[in-house]
Amino acid sequence: MHQPLIKIAKSACLEVYRFSAFHWEIVRRIFKPPYYPRTIWEQMDRIGVESLSIVVLVAFFTGFVLAFQIGYALMRFGAKLYVGGIVAVSLVRELGPVLISMVFAGRVGAGITAELGSMQVSEQIDAMRALATDPMRKLVLTRVVAATLMLPVLVVIGDLIGILGGMLVGVMNLGLTAAFYKSSVVNSLVFNDLFSGVIKPVVFGAMISGVACYFGINTRGGTKGVGEAVTRTVVVSSVLIFLLDAIITKVLYLAGM
């Protein structure tokens, strides 16, 4: 009975070691050229610009629904004036980074894994090694850098769109003026909120792209293996988003932020 448990524990420890070693190799390459800036720029366009439409949709309707629910709940207590501040703080500190990162993991993370996995099973990555090109630097590092830079930008844009969606509800359904809603948002947000809302997507972007590259580079088993790798990427990234969100929130709280 204990043999299967020991085997599972050994496999889990080995996977964690490989995962950690893979990310250590990424970190090592950050401090040494070449960096392939053109490839990074191309990945920033694919990862960031092409994800903008879905981010805008998700953020707008999140802010819209959030303001709707909170507004009508606060109306019973005569406190609908606080809707703008509550929506802004909720989006900037928590909902914006987490929800947009989940969308990012589903679209960008899965895409990176499928792309690298297809290259792996078709032996294109082995061909790069044969031509003395480091796939960790050319394929992995460029995507990690692009994702780490672009996810915070997407989150900032998403936060603004979500706040605008909340303002639409405030003006049309709650009887607030646009000027009052705007002042409520500005007066409610402080530096700690903005710092928390930016540092989270930086960490999430690095994590999602790292996980996606790890499962993509280590894909085995042909096209079936590519599908399994994509599924693992989305699942692991989603779990780690919530785990890291809890850790970062606790650390910022202990730091007085």
Describe the structure.
The protein is an all-alpha fold and 257 residues long. The chain folds into two domains: 30 residues; 214 residues, no CATH class. Helices cover 85% and strands 0% of the residues. Helix 3 packs parallel to helix 6 and helix 4 runs antiparallel to helix 9. The longest helix is centred in the middle third of the chain and has 39 residues.
Estimate percent helicity.
over 70%
Strand content: under 5%
Low-confidence stretches: none
Q: How large is the radius of gyration?
A: 21 Å
Keywords summarizing the entry:
257 residues; mainly alpha; 2 domains; 9 helices; elongated
Summarize the helices and strands and which ones pair or pack.
Blueprint: H1 2-30, H2 37-47, H3 52-75, H4 83-121, H5 124-130, H6 135-172, H7 178-188, H8 191-217, H9 222-254
In short:
The protein is an all-alpha fold and 257 residues long. It has nine helices and no strands.
